[in-house]
Design brief:
about 20% strand, Immunoglobulin-like, alpha/beta, about 800 residues, Rossmann fold, binds beta-D-glucopyranose
Length: about 800
C-alpha cells in the first residue's frame, strides 16, 4: 500500500469518507482504491465485538469473550505482569474475532469516588495509572492489535460528559490529568488515542488544537490516529483542523458534506485533511497485515482472569476470622452470592465465555453452607420477607458470610452515582444481622469506594471489586485460604462522601470546577490530615512482612532504591512495596508526598527477597505555568518506603543540587488555600480564578434550547417537555416490557438495559444523539428537535422535512439518496 499515492488518487468524497467511520465500528472502505475497512471494538476488560445490532451502550449482544477483572480491580493487584498478560490474551481474542483496534484502556484519573466510570479507570494517582497502562498497551500491541487510549482528556465525570466543561488549572492538568497519557504515548506508542466528549477550559477536546496537536503530537511525539469518542464531534471541520483524524461512529453525511464544502471553497486546507488520511491509512495498512480467525484458548484465558482476580482482591479488615475452614458450617446471605456483579455496565459490557459465581464455586468445593438471599439486588428497598428469613437463620449460625456491594443499578457508565452509600436494603439487613452479635464477614463487589457505616460491627471485609467472570472462584479461594489476599487500594476510601473535597459541587452542571487543583485523592487527605476509612495503597494479608536494609543509589539520571522484605507469618503471600518521595522545601505548593515507584514481591513463609524500585530524577519535577515546562527543584528529598501511603517502614534522604533556580510562578498571598490545605479547603472564586488565569464564564442559559443543550433541560419549555417525555418513552416502554417477562436472567438484563438507556438518553444533547446514531438520526432532524423545543414549529417542520442531497459513501452505489 503506497499511502502517499493513495491519498493523491482519492476524490474529495473518498477523502471525506475515510475521515469517518461506518456501520458503528468500522472505517470506510474505498473499493476503487482497494482500501479495506478495519474494525474497532470495545473493551477494554475483554472484547465486546458486536456482530448484529450495533450500539455503543452495551445493549446488544456481542460475541462470547473472556470478561477480565475491570481496571479498578486489576489496578489493585499492583502487578504489571497481570496487565501485560491480560492485554496479550484480549489481543488474541481480537485476532480471533477480527477486531484490529481495542477501544481502551481508559486512563482517566479518579477525581471523585462517585464517577460512574471509576470501575473503568485504574487509579487516583497518575504514576500508578501510567505504569499499569503502559504494560496493558504493550501486551495488546505485542500481538499487532492497536489500542485506543481513552478518554483524552479530563473526562472525570459522567452526568454532563457530552457538553460539560472541565475547568482546570494548567498545572493540575499537566501533573494529574495528562501525566499518564504523556507516559503511555512516549513509552508504549498506542496506535490510537480517543478524544473525550467534554470540553476543557471552554473548548471541546475534539476541537482543541492545543490538546490534539500542540501537546499530543508536537510535545509528546504521538504518531498514531486520533479517534473521536462515539458521537464526540461537534464541528467536523474544526476537529480535523485541530488534529482529530477519525470521526466515529460516522455515517454522518452532513459532516462529510461540511468537509467537502470547506475543501472546495478553500477554507480547509487539503494538506490538513491529507495528514489525517495518512495517519488513518498507516493504521489500515498495519491492520490489514494481521491474520484473523486464529483460535484462542478459552480455558486458559478464563483461568488467567481468575488468577488476576485473586491477586487483586483487597482485604480491608480481618479480626483473625479469615480464612475460613471449608468444613465449618456457614450461613451465606446476599443476592450477589448467586448474582455476582463481576463487570460494569455500559460500553465495556462483555458477554462472558463462562461464569463462576460464588455460589457455583462453593458448590463445586462442597462447602458446608446454607443460603438466604436477604435482599434483592435489583431493588433499593428491603424485601421484608427475605430480610426476616435471613435474620432468623442468623440466630442459629456461628459465622455469617454477607455478599453485598454496588449493583448495576447503583453504578454505570453515563451517569455518576448520587451517593456513596450502599443500597438501603443491604444496609438495613446488615444492621439487623450485626444486632445478632454473630461473626460477620462481608464480601464486597462494586467498582468504587462505598461508605462502610457497619465497619465496626463486622469482623472482616474482603473487597473483590469487579472481579471478572470467574470472580466467584477467586472469592472462594481467598475466603477458604487457598490463596492469600495481596491487593492494595489504588484509590483512597474516604470515611464519608462529605469528606471529598468540593464533593458537593461534583457533576451538578455543565461546569466542572477542578478547584482542588493538584490535591486529588491522597494528595488532599494527606495534606489536610483528614482521617480516611482506608488510605491509598492500603490492603491486609493473612501473613505479615518485615522491611529492612534500605539502599538508595544515584545512578546518573536515575535513582535506584532497594530493600529486603521478609515473610514473617505462617502462610505464603505477597507484599506491594510502595515508594513515596517528599519534597517540602519548595516555595511552590506541593503534595506532601507522591508515589514514584513500587514493586510487588511474592514470598514463601520465612523467605526474604529484595524489592527493587527505580525512578528518574525528572519524575520529581513540577510543571511551571510561567515557563511552560517541567522544573526540577534543588533541595532535600525524602524517600519513604512502606506498605501503604500512611504506613512507612523505611526512610532516607537525597539531595538535588545544581539545577537552574527558577522563580515560583505563584503569589503565595493570592493562593493561601493551596499553600495551607486544611480540612475546610476554603478556595474562594478569586483564588481559583487566580490559579486558573481566567474568569469562569457564566453557565450556559437553559433557554433558548440549543444543539448542545442537555436533553433533561428540555423540561424548561412546553414543547421541549413533550419531546423529552417522548424520547424517554423509548426507555420507559422497554422497562415496562421487561417487567412483564417471567422472572429470570432475561428479565433482569432487559430491566438493567432500560434503566441504562434512560440515564444515557437524559444526558445527551440533540447533537450527540445525532452524531452517535451512525446515521439513524440525521443532523437536520436533531436541529428540527431543537427548533420544536423552542416552540418554532414551522421552522422545525421545515428542517425535518427538508430534502437534502446526501453524500454517498464510496462503498455504496453512486446514486444520490434523498434524506427523509
Ligand atoms: C464510550 C467509549 C466507548 C465508545 C464505543 C462511548 O460512549 O465513552 O468509551 O469506547 O462509546 O462504545
Amino acid at each position: 500500500m503506497d499511502i502517499n499515492q493513495l491519498v493523491e488518487e482519492m476524490t474529495l468524497e473518498e477523502k471525506a469518507a475515510l475521515l469517518s467511520g461506518t456501520e458503528f465500528w468500522k472505517t470506510n472502505p474505498i473499493p476503487r482504491l482497494a482500501i479495506p475497512s478495519i474494525f474497532l471494538s470495545d473493551g477494554p476488560h475483554g472484547l465486546r465485538k458486536q456482530s448484529e445490532g450495533a450500539d455503543h451502550l452495551g445493549l446488544y449482544d456481542s460475541e462470547p469473550a473472556t470478561s477480565f477483572p475491570t481496571a479498578v480491580t486489576v489496578a489493585s493487584s499492583w502487578n504489571t505482569d497481570n496487565l501485560r498478560k491480560m492485554g496479550e490474551a484480549i489481543a488474541e481474542e481480537c485476532l480471533h474475532y477480527g477486531a484490529s483496534v481495542l477501544l481502551g484502556p481508559g486512563i482517566n484519573i479518579k477525581r471523585n469516588p462517585l464517577c460512574g466510570r471509576n470501575f473503568e479507570y485504574y487509579s487516583e494517582d497518575p504514576f500508578l495509572t501510567g505504569e499499569l497502562a503502559v504494560h496493558f498497551i504493550n501486551g495488546v500491541q505485542s500481538k499487532g492489535i492497536g489500542t485506543s487510549v481513552k478518554h483524552f482528556a479530563a473526562n472525570n465525570s459522567e452526568n454532563y460528559r457530552f457538553m460539560g466543561d472541565s475547568i482546570v488549572d494548567e498545572r493540575a492538568f499537566r501533573e494529574i490529568y495528562l501525566r499518564a497519557f504523556e507516559r503511555v504515548v512516549k513509552e508504549a506508542k498506542p496506535a490510537t488515542i480517543m478524544s473525550a466528549y467534554n470540553k476543557i477550559n471552554g473548548t471541546y477536546c475534539s476541537e482543541s488544537k492545543y490538546l490534539l496537536n500542540d501537546i499530543l503530537r508536537e510535545q509528546w511525539g504521538f504518531e498514531g490516529v486520533v479517534v473521536s469518542d462515539w458521537g464526540g464531534v461537534a464541528d467536523r471541520v474544526a476537529a480535523v483542523e485541530a488534529g482529530l483524524d477519525l470521526e466515529m461512529p460516522g455515517d454522518t453525511w452532513e459532516f462529510r458534506k461540511m468537509v467537502i464544502k470547506s475543501l472546495e471553497n478553500g477554507s480547509l486546507a487539503e494538506e490538513t485533511v491529507d495528514k489525517a488520511l495518512r495517519n488513518i491509512l498507516h493504521l489500515v495498512k498495519k491492520s490489514s497485515e494481521l491474520s484473523f480467525g486464529t483460535p484462542f484458548n478459552k480455558k486458559q484465558h478464563a483461568n488467567l482472569a481468575c488468577e488476576i482476580a485473586k491477586d487483586s482482591a483487597v482485604l480491608l479488615k480481618n479480626e483473625d476470622v479469615l480464612p475460613l475452614n471449608k468444613q465449618e458450617s456457614v450461613l451465606v446471605v446476599g443476592d450477589l452470592f448467586e448474582k455476582m456483579r463481576y463487570q460494569g455496565a455500559g460500553s465495556s459490557l462483555i458477554n462472558p465465555s463462562s461464569l463462576i459465581t460464588p455460589k457455583k464455586a462453593f458448590d463445586e468445593m462442597q462447602v458446608n453452607y446454607s443460603f438466604e438471599n436477604g435482599y434483592r439486588e435489583s431493588e433499593e428497598s428491603s424485601d421484608q420477607e427475605l430480610m426476616a428469613r435471613a435474620v432468623e437463620a442468623a440466630g442459629s449460625a456461628d459465622t455469617i458470610l454477607f455478599f453485598g456491594g454496588l449493583t448495576d443499578y447503583a453504578e454505570s457508565e453515563g451517569t455518576d452515582r448520587a451517593t456513596m452509600k450502599l443500597p438501603t436494603n443491604q444496609l438495613e439487613l446488615l444492621s439487623k444481622l450485626s444486632a445478632t452479635g454473630k461473626k460477620i464477614i462481608v464480601i464486597l463487589f462494586g467498582g468504587s469506594p462505598v461508605e462502610l457505616p457497619f465497619y465496626d460491627d463486622v469482623h472482616a471485609i474482603l473487597n473483590m471489586y469487579l472481579p471478572g467472570q470467574h470472580g466467584g472462584e477467586a472469592a472462594a479461594a481467598l475466603i477458604f485460604g487457598d490463596a492469600t489476599p495481596s491487593g492494595k487500594l489504588a484509590e483512597t476510601w474516604p470515611m464519608e462522601y462529605q469528606d471529598v473535597p468540593f464533593g458537593g459541587d461534583y457533576s451538578k452542571n455543565e461546569h466542572e470546577l477542578y478547584q482542588e487543583s493538584i490535591f486529588v485523592g491522597y494528595r488532599y487527605y494527606d495534606q489536610a490530615e483528614k482521617e480516611v476509612r482506608f488510605p491509598f495503597g492500603f490492603g491486609k494479608s493473612y501473613t505479615t512482612f518485615s522491611y529492612s536494609n534500605l539502599v538508595v543509589e544515584e545512578m546518573g539520571s536515575k535513582i535506584k532504591v532497594t530493600c529486603d522484605i521478609t515473610n514473617t507469618g505462617n502462610v505464603d503471600g505477597a507484599e506491594v512495596v510502595q515508594l513515596y518521595v517528599k519534597n517540602n522545601q519548595s516555595d511552590i505548593f506541593k503534595a506532601k508526598k507522591e508515589l514514584r515507584a513500587f514493586d510487588k514481591v511474592y514470598l514463601k513463609v520465612g523467605e526474604t527477597k529484595k524489592a527493587t524500585m527505580t525512578f528518574s530524577r525528572t519524575d520529581l519535577s513540577y510543571y511551571n505555568i510561567d515557563l511552560k515546562e517541567w522544573v526540577l527543584e534543588n533541595g532535600l528529598y525524602v524517600i519513604e518506603v512502606g506498605e501503604s501511603s500512611d504506613i512507612i517502614h523505611l526512610r532516607d534522604n537525597f539531595l538535588i543540587d545544581g539545577e537552574k533556580e527558577v522563580d515560583s510562578p505563584y503569589n503565595l498571598e493570592n493562593l493561601r488555600a493551596y499553600y495551607h490545605v486544611d480540612r475546610n479547603f476554603d478556595v474562594t472564586p478569586v483564588q481559583f480564578e487566580g490559579l486558573l488565569g481566567y474568569k469562569v464564564p457564566p453557565l450556559p442559559a437553559k433557554t433558548p434550547i440549543g444543539l448542545e443543550t442537555r436533553l433533561s433541560h428540555y423540561n424548561e419549555t412546553f414543547l421541549g417537555r413533550r419531546l423529552y417525555t417522548s424520547i424517554l418513552g423509548v426507555a420507559n416502554r422497554q422497562y415496562k416490557q421487561a417487567l412483564k417477562l417471567p422472572d429470570g436472567i432475561e428479565k433482569e438484563a432487559k430491566k438493567k438495559n432500560a434503566v441504562f438507556l434512560m440515564n444515557i438518553l437524559q444526558s445527551n444533547s440533540a447533537r450527540t444523539l445525532a452524531a452517535a446514531s451512525a446515521g439513524r438520526v440525521p443532523l437536520h432532524i436533531a436541529k428540527g428537535f431543537v427548533a420544536l423545543a423552542n416552540g418554532q414549529v414551522m421552522d422545525a417542520l421545515k428542517m425535518m422535512l427538508k430534502k437534502e442531497k446526501t453524500i454517498p459513501l464510496p462503498k455504496a452505489s453512486s446514486t444520490t439518496q434523498k434524506s427523509d
